[in-house]
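Thread: quick sanity check before group meeting

JM: Hey all, I'm pulling together slides for Thursday and realized we never actually wrote out the predicted structure for the chain we discussed last week. Dropping the sequence here so it's in one place. If anyone has concerns about the input, flag it before I start.
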Amino acid sequence: MISRGLTAKAGKTLAAVLILSAGYLLQAQSTSAPAATGTTANKNPNKLETEVVTITDAIAFPSKIIRKQGQFYLLLVNQTHRNAPKIFFDSPTAPAAQIPVLGRGLNLPYLPSAHRVAAIFNAPPGVYQLKWQATGRVLLTINIEQ
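JM (edit): ok, ran it. Output follows.
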């Protein structure tokens, strides 16, 4: 009885340690690894906080980012298998002229071939959405607060 209880507790503790370790490794990888865009690599020279978004065939994870106003490094990782993701930025709150600038800054057209695109994201307060081009479905919502 006692050994089973201890084994169960040890198993839970080990699982928690592994999850925390994986989180630290992902954080270290996302803040230190350069992200390729086309033939060049974007680096994070200012050591800004990094938001890593993984895009799969069905979803983006995380699907929502809430941040205070200010620049941060946004890294999009393409892990789709069926189709190359054709995505674009949209915003119900930002001026229409600003939206294409955000997409060009991230080199979104290179995402299918590069598998990673990254750039400094420095938008004014508002709501920004990353959408599938074919369906208009929202993959990611970024809320920038004042």
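AS: nice. Strands lie at 35-37, 40-42, 50-55, 60-61, 64-68, 72-78, 87-90, 116-121, 126-132, 138-145. The chain has one domain: 33-145.
JM: adding both to the slides.
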